Amino acid sequence: MQALVDRIYGTLKARTGEGRVADYIPQLAKVDRDKFGIAIEMVDGTSFVAGDVDEPFSIQSVSKVFTLTLALGKIGDSLWARVGREPSGTPFNSIVQLEHERGIPRNPFINAGAIVVADVILAGHEPREAIGEILRFVRFLADDETISIDPAVARSETETGFRNAALANYMRSFGNIHHAVEKVLGVYFHHCAIAMSCRQLARAGLFLANGGRNPLTGFGVVSRERARRINALMLTCGHYDGSGDFAFRVGLPGKSGVGGGILVTVPGRASIAVWSPGLDANGNSRVGSLALEAIAQETGWSVFSR
Amino acid sequence: MQALVDRIYGTLKARTGEGRVADYIPQLAKVDRDKFGIAIEMVDGTSFVAGDVDEPFSIQSVSKVFTLTLALGKIGDSLWARVGREPSGTPFNSIVQLEHERGIPRNPFINAGAIVVADVILAGHEPREAIGEILRFVRFLADDETISIDPAVARSETETGFRNAALANYMRSFGNIHHAVEKVLGVYFHHCAIAMSCRQLARAGLFLANGGRNPLTGFGVVSRERARRINALMLTCGHYDGSGDFAFRVGLPGKSGVGGGILVTVPGRASIAVWSPGLDANGNSRVGSLALEAIAQETGWSVFSR
Amino acid sequence: MQALVDRIYGTLKARTGEGRVADYIPQLAKVDRDKFGIAIEMVDGTSFVAGDVDEPFSIQSVSKVFTLTLALGKIGDSLWARVGREPSGTPFNSIVQLEHERGIPRNPFINAGAIVVADVILAGHEPREAIGEILRFVRFLADDETISIDPAVARSETETGFRNAALANYMRSFGNIHHAVEKVLGVYFHHCAIAMSCRQLARAGLFLANGGRNPLTGFGVVSRERARRINALMLTCGHYDGSGDFAFRVGLPGKSGVGGGILVTVPGRASIAVWSPGLDANGNSRVGSLALEAIAQETGWSVFSR
Amino acid sequence: MQALVDRIYGTLKARTGEGRVADYIPQLAKVDRDKFGIAIEMVDGTSFVAGDVDEPFSIQSVSKVFTLTLALGKIGDSLWARVGREPSGTPFNSIVQLEHERGIPRNPFINAGAIVVADVILAGHEPREAIGEILRFVRFLADDETISIDPAVARSETETGFRNAALANYMRSFGNIHHAVEKVLGVYFHHCAIAMSCRQLARAGLFLANGGRNPLTGFGVVSRERARRINALMLTCGHYDGSGDFAFRVGLPGKSGVGGGILVTVPGRASIAVWSPGLDANGNSRVGSLALEAIAQETGWSVFSR
């Protein structure tokens, strides 16, 4: 298995120059495009890694898996009255759908949906408290107290996040955001700025591969059914408008971020995190996707092939 | 297992009155709403059934799984230049997306995509020949020469199919339909009018659960990889705008039809067909979905929970 | 006045090379791009012309003014239950709006609306009869029996009109087309293929400048109120998505066609027809629009400046 | 003429109960639905009035005519690089179009367009200064120093204006808003809260009927050409998605506001203001529109009928 990871890493390392690094946030544009890491954490406690697996990167939208989990823990399935569970499915972006669906975002992984999730977590508290709660939760999941938020990235998002402010105000006009927009966005921008390494990320996602329980710490996070359902959402909605293609090629639940990270669940077996900053046209890590496709291909781990 | 199927059948039989029978085609509106069948064909050759499992019904869009398989056999992955692989994802219907995406349908399971698939199968022949080829293929998959097309349903579709004629003409204006529209629609309407029983349907889908090979006949249908990919498409796109919800609740690849049938793959284990004509708001069998949710729940067969 | 027309003609003649000739119909693509004519017919019977004013060209969508007038004569204001009176207003084309507005086109000058108008004129007759009626009506308006339909253009439209077939089928799916689609399109394609010279066209439109009555023949065509209303529709909807711009720059009711013709009403004063085949991005005659802007500027004939 | 106005007032007074008063802003919902006024100011200095013509009401979007005029005075036709001149033309609201047209609103009279205009007027100053400038300009146009802004209405807009905040942030994400969103909206909400009587409003609009010059004060406001063009924009875009219908029925340039006011230009003759708070489905004064239709009908003042 380690040989397999090394081989895939070696083959793809040469292609990290492909794709474009996200540049809409100045802080993200500074990242070294040649960074590349693969970390596989098995549910039995073994792990296989290659490349830059200990260097923290901005997990961006991958954090939405964790905030969704946290929000479901707070208000349970009543969340689904405020956020849908369907792929967003249009190349043109989500504000159109908000209009057609009266302020209800399609799913918790598009920006609008994650902003509603942040509103749920805010729950009457100050942004500082909510951000702290999210960070503590992620540290708990990864069993690693060193995980932190990159303040420069959070500030960068705040300064340029007009599109997200539009989404939040728009949903507020329908009553689907309950707190002041700037507070909600404060929470949202900060959790997107969480920095983690591949190894930390793979560990933090391990509960999803193990029926809701972290096999390393033994702590239960969510019920078996909820773990299964979060995986389903990742598969159908985890890669923006490339979700269908990712399911087709890789066949595993995953969530990508514009920082170039992807977190993938192999139900019953492993949690995988990859990182390569060059993005494809849909905003997903190009080489990261290829690495996952190769891993799925060679291991036969696709959920569709057993 | 048989006890489980009997119990689920018994519990849900009382609810077959829920939902609305499809009425846009007069022939479909005539069906008895209380029909209900569950057929589970295991890859090991055993089977578990309950209810109306030997009565043929109009499989409608479930046939798109078979025509996709046939078209991929003819032209391989070049099909994907003419049809996408992403969930359609909008509640408003698909002609809008065709406009935005220049005549390329989002996936092969929405009407527009299946019409392109029919155009591929037509391949210069007369509709009669293409229809014959599709029917022979389905009979081969199910290993049952008695399967036929309901001519009254096919005629009914032809008479009222203005929306599909609009889609086909629209795609033809972009050059993505190569044959005369009436010929392509002739093929499309006829394969939607295939009539099969739950038992036949479950058998016809068994190759998808068994790595591309029908375990009952031993015949290979597609490669392991292609079987996996068709399953992925069923999971992300198989239930119109309820695909995300079906993945969330059931967690298995499936394809529904407005005749009330659903075909589901349990990779490595089984093929399931259910039939109950009452539909939910998205056009999927209401009681059929509940039956599959219960089966997945009790067996733990979700692809997301291993 | 003649000097003014000569001067504007002279200045703009040098620019007829600008813009692109419509090429979606092969027959239209063959036209000589340097053709340019201006014909002003005053309500007092005088006329001022310059350039190619006696050569017939394909009037295309300008014919929609005449078919609208004819349809209103047949069924009166009940037409407005089937066609709206609002500018179409989106750069992306009209099939989207048909979806949102359940098969009711925005106005009678976009393709979908004109197809409904053709359906009204068809009124249970054969296409041949309806086409004959339209042609007789246009000859009556222009008081010129030599006007005819170019059969090569009509055939050309029929062969390539998949987009219009999509629109017609789509509206038929909502019940807003009452006859067989191929018959309705037969009427539509033929009236778009009417060939007229600038001089004929200006005369045919003169009733709109004169309270509904042709001042040359003395025949009443429509009531004063209906003439006013048709002018209003031309002003708000006559130039596709360039209607607002034309009103802003020229300030007169007009209807353009992709053959490069524009018919304009100067209420109380004159009817103007210009022809220059080079089109702007919205499909309106580029030099023709400039000629009309210059005429309006120098004469002060804008409806907004009295 | 006075008799005509009295008669129309008398006939329609009985129907002021029709339509719904705008309730999205609490302050507007409090207005007495039975208020009704008609003021006609002729360019020759005579005037004809009936009903509640001296009571100030919230002019709301009618103010956009004045801010457009002011912004054109500041930056001239370069404004048109940031705002279009086409009718918005869709029943579904404008944020969709902003997405398709990359942050450029269709015209200066829809909310998004007027927000860009407010951004132009802000021009680096503080909102207080810009608001003061707009108010002084309107007082100058009406030659009436008593005109003021209703602070309760302005505050009410600010508190509930999430939809407008969404539009402004969205345009800012495309770079088409240059100042802080809250400052721009401060200007926008305040000019919408200008309170004027019918008489004041008709006088303020008189320059548009008189080639750009106020005939009562003798002061030039804009060039003849600009007056003509503003009238053209009012005709094509002045009544939201009812603009085509208003042109069809009334045939005069007009701008409505959800406070129930409508300002109309009769080029060369008069400026008319009507007020009746009950609105139709498009947000235009129901009885006000009927009054204008009757005036246009009986006087023959339509721009399309001379």
Automatic annotation (TrEMBL), chains A, B, C, D:
Matches recorded under InterPro entries = Beta-lactam/transpept-like, Glutaminase
One Pfam family it belongs to: Glutaminase
User: Keyword annotations for this protein?
Assistant: Acetylation, Hydrolase
Species, as recorded = Labrys wisconsinensis
Chain positions recorded as substrate binding sites: 61, 111, 157, 164, 188, 240, 258
The protein, known as? Glutaminase
Give this protein's Gene Ontology molecular function annotations: glutaminase activity
What family is it from?
Belongs to the glutaminase family.
| HAMAP family found in the cross-reference section | Glutaminase
- Whom does it interact with, and what assembly results? Homotetramer.
Output the superkingdom of the source species. Answer: Bacteria
The reaction(s) this protein catalyses: L-glutamine + H2O = L-glutamate + NH4(+)
Q: Gene behind this chain? A: glsA
Q: What are its E.C. numbers?
A: 3.5.1.2
